Amino acid sequence: MTTQTRAPSATASLAQRFPPGFRWGAATAAYQIEGGVDADGRGASIWDTFSHTPGRTLGGDTGDVAVDHFHRWREDVELMAGLGLGAYRFSIAWPRVQPTGRGPANEKGLDYYSRLVDTLLEKGIQPIPTLYHWDLPQALEDAGGWPVRDTAYRFAEYAGLVAERLGDRIPLWLTLNEPWCSAYLGYAAGVHAPGRTEPASALAAVHHLNLAHGLGARALRSVAGDDVGVGAALNFHVPRPVDPSSPGDLEAVRKVDALANRAFLGPMLEGRYPDDLLDDVAGVSDFGFVHDRDLEQIAVPLTALGVNYYASCLVRQHVGTGPKETADGHGDGASPWVGADDVEFPATAPPHTAMGWNIDPAGLTELLTGLATRYPGLPLLITENGAAFADRVDADGRVRDADRTAYVRRHLGAVADAIDAGADVRGYLVWSLLDNFEWAYGYERRFGIVHVDYDTQARTVKDSGRWYAGLLAYHEAVSRARTERD
Ligand code: IFM
Fold it and tell me: Which atom of ligand 1 is nearest to the CA of 308?
């Protein structure tokens, strides 16, 4: 593959805004790319069950084959090397390692990830595994799923098994990806697996996911050593009030921030659930599932906080008895916003991506500087950022996705602004390396910087991927020159 090594000046000046050593990479997740769902003793996950349930995903799409990364991973690592990536964030499928979510490891499942890690390292690409990106073993869901405390202990056992096998080669682990989605979309809105609509269970899931993070981090460190890097990837919500002078709208901002952001940041980084969150949801749950010492277990020191950011949202207090606006993409079914019945999500101003999400790079700067202020000294890593657009393969085979390039370029500018303002951001992982299974949207939304033809599985680097490779090459050259000079 040819990459653009002489960057045009706008790209060159963007690259210069990032310090030497800044990590560039891409991210994926097991169920979205692997396929091979019956290979080598893998067990069923909740996403297998959910996607095979009629009506749950667009077009009835499933991850059975996905982009066949389970078989094509060598080719995909070559692609990453060709792009010049310095890091690759992928997730480990729990049901490949423990087909029923408990008991001894399935060595063949671990062999697969061990080979992947070795090959990445040979190419100079840092592997950044996420232990849980939503594919809970179905057997654990049958035993109650995340609303049940034991699931957190099972996760810790799984984390320990993975660390025993890979721990000698992994400098940074991520425990969970976007527990907001696992808890609220999975157990309150029911639009993600396992598809339950039980608000109280969603809150119990929030806590048990937090507990799993803490117990899992401890298991990783007890096997791989106290100084092994551990973080979690949270999907932050940046709510903006419709009317900044309206106390009701500001209250809506507070509620969304509490449910979406502080429900995880609080326990993980401060060892407590925010009082206002507990008040907001008091009518749904008394949080009696929090046991003595849980919060201590959860608040392990983090090496880095993973930040997933795509868009901001508009919120306001719903007044009157009319229907609420739900332009947050969750339709008019059950709400993920437990205990926030008076909050509505009016439509944001265009432009939007193919997900219907607004494009608001300033929201990322605000988020990063806000986190840096609240948690000084905590390194931040952009674990996901990217956009879905309706890509087209032109007759000459190129994918001219200028809208995606512009999105990534503007968000990188926003990251650089945050760094200038003092935020300690260590890296950026674009979502996603490859087009893939976008959960309930099936294959209808493409996020990749590499296009995948789902009939032939042919990979084609999109223009955005070429641009990204050029940026990385330029950054490497500038960093080398700076290091030699200093
Ligand atoms: O595809 C997802 C990913 O699995 C988690 N974060 C958001 C992405 C885009 O929706």
Answer: 6
